[in-house]
Amino acid sequence: xxxxxxxxxxxxxxxxxxxxxxxxxxxxxxxxxxxxxxxxxxxxxxxxxxxxxxxxxxxxxxxxxxxxxxxxxxxxxxxxxxxxxxxxxxxxxxxxxxxxxxxxxxxxxxxxxxxxxxxxxxxxxxxxxxxxxxxxxxxxxxxxxxxxxxxxxxxxxxxxxxxxxxxxxxxxxxxxxxxxxxxxxxxx
Length: 188
Prior knowledge:
Distance between the termini: 12 Å
Largest sheet: 3 strands, antiparallel
Shape: elongated
Number of helices: 7
Helix content: 55-70%
Strand content: 5-15%
Number of domains: 2
Low-confidence stretches: none
Number of strands: 3
Radius of gyration: 21 Å
């Protein structure tokens, strides 16, 4: 199951281009989504599953409603799950689709769970912008790598050959927006 990591990382990195946090929405999210789905389909290719058509018909209805009610990009996972449910219904005719179906279902599930967590993360990030709890572990880690670092309130000051560089310990600077979807995918 360690082969699904490239797919989860690709799906997680697509959020950097889907949600306009660091810049405007960019078309590169399509490459990461397709790459993540392909990686997961390839990783889950040897697995097979048994299916119940009634479950997929019910999920088709629920996912269609979710796809209509939730705005883009937060409904993207439901769209991938919907395509996976359609592929699962076709598995009785074409059994070779089972690996691709599992890859689509896993990718859709990961993207849906990530999309459910992001609104909560944005509310927390606005309220608690600075991460003081990571300040001193960051200092310890930087000193372990031999950097000359000092602390003042919520800022790190790193001495370089060009001078002293201030580094605020915020959610954006610490890369938590990038790490959050990867952590969510790892927990699944």
